[in-house]
């Protein structure tokens, strides 16, 4: 039986990669994977115990003459367990001597700017929430996660993984917070896969927005800069080509499907939330290609507004598809090109409405 997790710890590194390392890696790698897995499980339990019953349903849209400003705090975890660690750089402080602190300070600001300028959302919760980050968490920690109140980054082991301070990773993890404060999605089966997919979609859009890339110019990769020198692969995930992001002797092969015919039924990873998310990921990619231009102008607006209106924590892929088509109808009109292309994208991944 899969336990339900309304507010679990959200780690960028999926369990199937850790399983692969345990099967294929040397003794040092196996022990690392086991430690990472245990730490993730322990933190999930702590997160659930501390989680509020329910976050408010949706963020207000910003209006009026006052422009919200970002508030950031970056802590040094000192390669220890405790969080958040020592405050190194607060909002408005001069740069630190620690380049990782400065990088995270800058990149979390880019995520804030993306949500503010593209969607008129004032930080993660829509209410100006301080963006808290801890770098140098634990020793050679191979992961990054959102624990419900802050971001946490490991430095990587230097072999399989480098630092996890990648903009798409930061956008992904903070977008889990946006889902959390938009009514939430239960972290299991298809609703959990939608949770992961939303984070992937908005993670890649953060990169595209920062680089001012059109849908045809972008590479649509999540975690492009986290693999170490010994890994064969482009990135952790690909929205353009789920299943082809990496193929490595130690990490295994990217297991993500791009179509419902390839849907993976499994009891691990809360029902395959990091695997089956490839299907809605690819639907968004296809829709964005059809609509063209910048992804956040039309495709992203449909996805974002649909999340604000969903109000269904156990939503299936079909529920989400129906909500996105309805949102496209509401925004652009019945029978509009945008509505028709949204429906077509879902059909191409095997979901017929």
Task: Supply the key terms.
353 residues, alpha+beta, Elastase, domain 1, Neutral Protease, domain 2, 2 domains, six-stranded mixed β-sheet, two-stranded antiparallel ribbon, 10 helices, globular, disordered N terminus
Description:
The protein has 353 residues and is an alpha+beta fold. It has two domains: 57-180, Elastase, domain 1 (Roll); 189-348, Neutral Protease Domain 2 (Neutral Protease, domain 2). It has helices at 15-24, 27-50, 99-119, 167-180, 189-211, 269-272, 278-291, 299-310, 317-332, 337-348, and strands at 10-11, 72-76, 86-90, 131-135, 144-146, 151-153, 221-222, 237-238, 247-248, 252-253. A six-stranded mixed sheet has the order 1-5-6-4-2-3, covered by helices on one side. Strands 7-8 form a two-stranded antiparallel ribbon. Strand 9 (247-248) and strand 10 (252-253) form a beta hairpin. The radius of gyration is 19 Å and the shape is globular.
Measured between the Cα atoms of the first and last residue, the distance is 30 Å
Q: CATH H level of the largest domain: which superfamily?
A: Neutral Protease Domain 2
| Radius of gyration, taken over Cα atoms and rounded to an integer in Å | 19 Å
The strand count comes to 10
Strand content: 5-15%
Which structural class best describes the helix and strand composition?
A: alpha+beta
**Total number of distinct structural domains:** 2
Treating each run of at least 4 consecutive H or I residues as one helix, how many helices? Answer: 10
Seen as an oligomer or otherwise, the chain set is single chain
CATH fold naming of the largest domain: Neutral Protease, domain 2
Low-confidence stretches: 1-7, 45-56
What's the rounded overall pLDDT mean? 91
Shape: globular
Largest sheet: 6 strands, mixed
What is the CATH class name of the largest domain?
Mainly Alpha
**What topology, given as strand order, has the largest sheet?**
1-5-6-4-2-3
